[in-house]
Every structure is written in structure tokens, then in C-alpha cells.
Amino acid sequence: MNLIQSVESKYIKDDIPNFGPGDTVRVNTRIREGKKERTQAYEGTVIRRTKGGLSSTFTVRRVAYGEGTERTFPLHSPNIESIEVVRFGAVRRAKLYYLRNRTGKSVRIREKKQSSDA
Asked: pTM (2 decimals)?
């Protein structure tokens, strides 16, 4: 097992922010079209996060023009340029699949109260 971890450690990213289900994130991915390369942002609510070393993934759901779409990203993919946490959401579940059946105001997630350090 130690051999697998030593090989995977080269590819694991260190600059990943701390986020979880319920948080709103903006994922900037590199898109290659022929010889050109551009950055595309995908912003939405994290509905799932799996932890498994190099094969860790997270699923982001967004509703655009009344149509819900989900996209699953490998966490340590070289095509992910950056992950920014826009809002921290207060949820009580690890998987938010129930959001798929909801529309309108019932999709909203409360914002997590930030503790004051001062």
C-alpha cells in the first residue's frame, strides 16, 4: 500500500480549498479546442464529495435557464485550474441528492454563520 501512495503523491494537489456539500464553488477548468486553450468557469452548489486519495471527486449542480445540470470533477485533475469557494452553506447531509427534485426557493441553502475570532 505504501508503494501506491508514494506513486500517487506526485500528482496530488496541495492548493485545494476546504469545501464540502452545500458550499457554492466556482471551478475554473482548462478547455482545449484544437490548438487553442481557454478557461471556463462552472459555478454551482456542491452536492457530493468523495474522498479516495488521487481518485477523489466532487459533483457540482447548477441551474441555468430553468434547467439543472450536474458535473463531476476529479479533484486532482490537471485540467482544473482553480477552485474558489463563493459561499459556505449550512447543511446536515453528506449527499444533497434531494436538491434534484426541488425548484425555485426550496433549492436555497442557508449560509453558514462565520465565527468571529476577535
From this structure: 0.87
